[in-house]
Amino acid sequence: MSQKNFILATGRRKSAVAQVKLVDGSGQFMINGKLGLNYMQENAFCFLLIQAPFNLLKLDKKYDIIVKVEGGGLLGQAQAIQLGIARALASFENSYRSSLKSKGFLTRDSRCKERRKYGLKKARKAPQFSKR
């Protein structure tokens, strides 16, 4: 992969959508124009969640990661970024796919918020029932 070539992949979780771009580099991590740890508000759990595919494959400082993410909360965005990174790595090298798949990094979590139904207060919460 030369400097001009890059890999694009998309990850989704709940209402968060992340577009991940992997470029050869020194391991710099940018999310929406900010450093990754700063964007994740110094939250170590979210940052480790994002780094998990790289830690599994021992590719810590091989690629620069540029992410554009929108929607959802911090954890949903972190999980969307993780899926995008895993998909990008799997499309780059087929040998990575089996180890990423066995750890569950390539599995899309499709759970999202249930819609509100009419006559109810929320998706399932009904008004209080009065017998008399």
Automatic annotation (TrEMBL):
> Gene Ontology terms, cellular component aspect?
chloroplast; small ribosomal subunit
- GO molecular function term, any single one: structural constituent of ribosome
Listed A to Z, the keywords are: Chloroplast, Plastid, Ribonucleoprotein, Ribosomal protein
- Single GO biological process annotation from the record: translation
Which InterPro entries does this chain map to? Ribosomal_Su5_D2-typ_SF (IPR020568), Ribosomal_uS9 (IPR000754), Ribosomal_uS9_bac/plastid (IPR023035), Ribosomal_uS9_CS (IPR020574), Ribsml_uS5_D2-typ_fold_subgr (IPR014721)
Predominant location: plastid
Name of a matching Pfam family: Ribosomal_S9
Kindly indicate whether the keyword Lipoprotein belongs to this entry: no
Annotated localization: Plastid, Chloroplast
Give the residues annotated as coiled coil: none
Q: Which family does it belong to?
A: Belongs to the universal ribosomal protein uS9 family.
Q: What is this protein called?
A: Small ribosomal subunit protein uS9c
Q: Which organism is it from?
A: Lobosphaera incisa
Its gene name is rps9
